[in-house]
Amino acid sequence: MDDVRPMASAPRVILRDSTLREGLDTPAVQFSPSQRFHLGELLAEAGVDEAEVVAPSRVTADLEIARALKARGLPLRICGLVYADGSRYEQEIGLSAGQLDWVTLLMPLSSKREPADPSEKITRLAAAVDYAVARTAAVGVGFPHATQTDLELLVRIGRVATEHGARRITIYDTNGSADPFRIRELLTALRGAWDVEMFFHGHNDLGLATANSLAAVAGGAHGVEVTVNGLGDRAGNASLEQVAVGLHLRGMPAAVRLERLPTLSRVVEEASGVAVPKLAPIVGEYVFIHKSPAHLRTPELFEAFDPALIGTRRRLDH
């Protein structure tokens, strides 16, 4: 649990699952502690690398869940978020140190969120990174509204963060307004500007979170944040099952046991109370049901991938 592998030497994409954090921002979703522990175990069994458990709005309460998950000795790095601006960041970083395998310090980049002045954002983030690095090894920074921000500011604040010791930067498409062309262009530019691990966090307001996540990897992202069944605020986030299969089919695999995805999806569906649409990609009930018998003679012409990849099978609708 203590080994934080440098992405530069890893041949695959890291998936950080945020179901236990972002999933709780889904309207009416509440996971009990026992459900969160069970989901953590299932994520580990499925080969997911990291689980984001701690939300910046409930650090103290979520750290209790994080500690319990770590005590189980799961092969799963436990992560959390702390706002870099505010009166509590020193206390929250102190509580997180030794409890989390990654601490991500958030600094929203929109001028509509305090502090409004870009220079003040940079100053406060640098101070928070200094404070965190002195107490824990694996410190990252995250930039909400990064896809709505001037590129010059994004590059500058990212450089300052890395100079002060941040080892990972997460780009947030907070309102889901970006498109794959923009995301690939942005991540390519940032990869040339920063010598640091880069992650992408996509929202699905325009139905593009999965496409944007794949584009981020194509642009140089080392990892992406996902949720099971795409749970999350508003229209949700990039779906674990869609991103994992999409990466696999494009020769950019993550260490995910794809045959575990249907079970994981069903468990989260039941625990969350949010139904998986029958037409949902990858895990929807209708994905491998054909009405035309002719399809079954050459199924590869009508299916994006063999159902055996996720441990299921095709059938004919009678």
Strand content: 5-15%
The number of E-state strands comes to 10
For the sheet with most strands, the description reads: 8 strands, parallel, barrel
Number of helices: 9
Cα-atom Rg, whole angstroms? 20 Å
CATH superfamily of the largest domain: Aldolase class I
Shape: globular
Could you list some keywords that capture this structure?
9 helices; 8-stranded parallel β-barrel; 318 residues; 10 strands; TIM Barrel; disordered N terminus; single chain; alpha/beta
What does this structure look like?
- The protein is an alpha/beta fold.
- It folds into two domains: 7-272, Alpha-Beta Barrel (TIM Barrel); 288-318, no CATH class.
- It is 34% helix and 14% strand.
- It has nine helices and ten strands.
- An eight-stranded parallel β-barrel has the order 1-2-3-4-5-6-7-8, surrounded by seven helices. A two-stranded parallel ribbon has the order 9-10.
- Strand 7, helix 7 and strand 8 form a beta-alpha-beta unit.
- Helix 1 runs antiparallel to helix 9, helix 6 runs parallel beside helix 7 (209-218) and helix 7 crosses helix 8.
- Mean pLDDT is 94; it is low at 1-10.
Strand-helix topology:
Blueprint: E1 14-17, H1 33-45, E2 50-54, H2 59-71, E3 77-83, H3 89-96, E4 102-106, H4 118-133, E5 139-143, H5 151-163, E6 168-173, H6 180-193, E7 197-202, H7 209-218, E8 223-226, H8 240-249, H9 261-272, E9 289-290, E10 315-316
Parallel strand pairs: 1-2, 1-8, 2-3, 3-4, 4-5, 5-6, 6-7, 7-8, 9-10
Briefly, what is this?
This protein has 318 residues and is of the alpha/beta class. It is 34% helix and 14% strand. Strand 1, helix 1 (33-45) and strand 2 form a beta-alpha-beta unit.
